[in-house]
Design a protein that fits this description.
With about 170 residues, this protein is an all-alpha fold. It has eight helices and no strands. Helices cover about 85% and strands about 0% of the residues.
Length: about 170
């Protein structure tokens, strides 16, 4: 029964989230932390951090981690398949639809409208993680310095992630 619940939950997350992993975070948090109570907010934030240093999209990593925590390898597989299945189906259908109506002004308006919504969803995901994860002066300073180094000084993100993780481990 829990495997079916995991499948339905992550299928719903995959089906109703647009804009990639960060845009999915508010829905993942709602479903996994608040609705089902499978993990705590702290564990979710740790999973977000771990997902940043592991290969693959954040939503797939999160589904894999949560599924594994709940029921081991089979839960991991079920959650991962469930979160990507809606995208596979939707992209296949959209490809056929876009090919048929290529050049249609209404389709272009629709796609432009979706872009704006996706930006909002990504911003909401960022804000929810920021408000939950940056909860002390030290974490705020680590965030500001990391943002400055990657965003303005164009330092490669990998060393910034490792140094920020080390600082967080030592100082927090």
């Amino acid at each position: 029964m829990i495997l079916l619940k995991i499948f339905i939950t992550f299928f719903k997350i995959g089906a109703f989230s647009f804009g990639g992993g960060y845009a999915m975070l508010p829905l993942i948090m709602q479903e996994v932390v608040y609705t089902n109570g499978w993990i705590s907010k702290e564990v979710l934030l740790n999973m977000v951090s771990i997902s940043q240093v592991t290969p693959g999209p954040i939503a797939i990593n999160m589904a894999t981690f949560v599924g594994y925590l709940k029921t081991g390898a089979i839960g991991s597989l079920i959650a991962t398949i469930a979160v990507i299945l809606p995208s596979i189906v939707l992209v296949s259908i959209m490809y056929l639809f876009i090919q048929k109506f290529k050049g249609n002004i209404y389709l272009e308006w629709f796609l432009n409208g979706i872009q704006v919504v996706i930006i909002g969803l990504i911003a909401a995901g960022f804000l929810s993680v920021f408000l939950e994860g940056v909860d002390s002066l030290i974490s705020t300073l680590i965030f500001i310095v990391s943002f400055y180094l990657v965003g303005y000084k164009k330092v490669h993100p990998i060393p910034v992630i490792f140094v920020a993780g080390l600082l967080g481990t030592v100082l927090l």
